[in-house]
Amino acid sequence: MQDNNQPGKTPDGKSTPPKGPKFNIYWVFGIIVLVLVGMTMFSNNFSNTIDAHSFYDFQNNYLNKNIVEKITIVNNEVAEAKLNTPATAPSPSSALSSPKEMIYSFRIGSVEQFNKDLETAYVANPNLQRVPIMYESRGNYLRELSGILLPLLIIIAMSFMMIRKMGGGVNGGGGGGIFNIGKSKAQLFEKGTKVNITFNDVAGLDEAKVEIMEIVDFLKNPKKYTALGGKIPKGALLVGPPGTGKTLLAKAVAGEAQVPFFSMSGSDFVEMFVGVGASRVRDLFKQAREKSPCIVFIDEIDAIGRARGKNMMMSNDERENTLNQMLVEMDGFSGESGIIVLAATNRPDVLDAALLRPGRFDRQISIDLPDAKGREKIFEVHLTPIKKSKNLDVKKLALQTPGFAGADIANVCNEAALIAARNGKEEVDMQDFNDAIDRIIGGLEKRNKIISPEEKKVIAYHEAGHAVSGWYLEYAHPLVKVTIVPRGTAALGFAQYLPKEKYLTLTEELEDDMCMTLGGRASEEIFFGKVSTGALSDLQQVTRTAYAMVSIYGMNDKIGNISFYDPQNEGGFQKPYSEETGNLIDREVKIISDKAFARAKALLESKRKEVEIIAEELLKKEVLFKDDLERLIGKRPFGDVDDNPEPGTIVSQAPVEPPASLGDIAS
Ligand code: ADP
Ligand code: ZN
Predict the structure, then answer these.
(1) Ion ligand 2 — residues with CB < 5 Å
(2) Which ligand is closest to the CA of 465, given by its number?
(3) Which side of the chain, N or C, has fewer Cβ within a 10 Å radius?
């Protein structure tokens, strides 16, 4: 079943064919406005018989002839002169003439002006009879009414349009958005039918599966737990980088327990309209309660769950309301009700502490990027529907894709199949997979991008600099391949490394890493005596690492064992240190990166020969793998330990940003 807020659908789900002009709120508005405008104009002509007559006309034609019986000043605007003898006077064109009673009316500037003019007329002509003047205020109700109603209607119409636009945009362009604005857009997958994903579809993630198994058990036999006085958890947080299978796992829980699955993204809750987010939360949980037991999955919970009151720039009322409503809902149902809320995030550190308290998301299940073995299993899952050649080496594919998330691997498999089909192959072979991996890594290949021979040479020496410096640094990651084939928009070439899969990083490792990253530019300087702009991303990476060492990891003597890492205050204006300390940090960062560059240059000076060999070979072959380097410049002095990477986790060097999902690439 799906949310029933789509337009043009009858309750039985069939769409109605459009017949005749559709009823539309704008038509109604339009017609009302037209009628009002028409009425206003008509009533103008109807009640006010005013022409371009002036006091002068009036004086000459009527007043001076003594045929004015009385003057009525209406609303201080119009003078209506009642004429008593129609005989000699020219028939006033604008008079509402019944034969007995003729009225000549004209607009007066102001009452004072009128009286003055009248007085002057009397003085000028002493024979004139003084005419009685009456004042009258006459309501033109139609005019007044439309004067109020018209702007009001326009305002209402405009706000309707705005609401519709926003509601429509969010609902994917559906009409009638306004009426559904507070309704959750949670997707509902009916029990057993729609969620046919099981744990078998989720490769790897063994530990996470064990932990989440328990939740499946809660849903299946709640009595088993409550009988012993235990409390069933209400929620769990799935923590991990994008594409690692958090949604997949949550769906699998629903599939395994045979319960409905509601899912919604945190960013969907946060709308421009105050109160919408909260009402969506309310609606989502209302639906969930009706279908319990069930799983409620909230993706990107950090969109609403960020710590409150940290970012002063933005008005956070709406998000706070949404978050509060979520807390209220979670406190509102008991464990026995059978609703379990799973939420996904990559940033548990920024979440509001209230969300993590007991009785809410008190369990955290971490889901990391897959290691080599995990990747192999994921490859196997996604290779199942593919017609693959027999010589396909899944292990090798897994080894070639360090840092890939499950979603990236799914992408590779799909891409490989497309490439094979494009080349008219019967089955997908290793070459297709290699191409697909390259494509996913660096965007589409741009072999035919025009690069001058000189440029190509600089790029070759730059990449050779990376490769050679890494080759002779003890802690640098082992090289996978180095290439000068341009990829994507930014990188003109790159050296790809296999990160050691481990949890902690030593100062020496960061230093070697920076040295290797600066090897490209150092090589340019050694061989060409000048540097190019091609090292931008290298420099960014080094700067980031150096800052992290000084201000986050406490790896600098001058700053000491202090970490200014404050994820809650990211993007805030206040730096957590004084200006003095800030200057010191900047100085130390410069010292560190200068040192790394000097080291890289010294190292490559001593390995000039090797750089030249690699660079020239790169110019010939464009791509060199680890084996080629061994053949050309000998085995890596420190290489052997890393030949069989241990399963583990890739440590990102600068945790200020989420770990890059594509392994180490120096461009
Ligand atoms: P997340 O919610 O963590 O961002 P998803 O669960 O949406 O990631 O994963 C996206 C897709 O990637 C899945 O639909 C699936 O095809 C693939 N995928 C990710 N992780 C795995 C895994 N462990 N096993 C199999 N497929 C996976
Ligand atoms: Zn580089």
Answers:
(1) 520, 538, 666-667
(2) 2
(3) N
- Nearest of 327, 164, 309, 318 to residue 235 by alpha carbon: 327
In this structure, the residue with its CA closest to atom 14 of ligand 1 is 248
- Please say if 463 is a catalytic residue: yes
Q: What is the pLDDT of residues 40-51, one digit of tens each?
A: 555 544 444 445
Q: What's the distance, CA 144 to chain centroid?
A: 47
User: Is the whole model's pTM more than 0.85, yes or no?
Assistant: no
Upstream peptide bond of 647 is cis (omega within 30 degrees of 0) = no
pLDDT at 40: 58
> Which ligand sits nearest to residue 493's alpha carbon?
2
User: What are the DSSP calls for 449-481, one per residue?
Assistant: S---HHHHHHHHHHHHHHHHHHHT-TTSPPEEE
Give the chain's radius of gyration (CA, Å). Answer: 40
Banded pLDDT at 193 (limits 50, 70, 90)? very low
- Residue 408 CA to ligand 1 center (angstroms) comes to 9
Q: Hey, how many other C-beta atoms are within 10 angstroms of the C-beta on 45?
A: 9
Question: Which residues lie below 8 Å from residue 328, measured CB to CB, with a gap of 6+?
Answer: none
**What one-character DSSP code corresponds to residue 242?**
T
- Asked if 339 and 291 count as a contact pair (C-beta separation under 8 A), the reply is no
DSSP string, 621-665: HSEEEHHHHHHHH---TTGGGGSSPPS--BPPS-TTSPPPTT-EE
Mean pLDDT estimate for the chain? 75
Pocket of ligand 1, beta carbon within 6 A: 202-205, 242-248, 344, 378, 381, 406-407, 410
Which residue in the block uniquely carries the two structure tokens 């690069």? 451
Give the whole-angstrom CA distance, residue 654 versus residue 597: 19
Give phi and psi for 133, each to the nearest 5: -115, 135
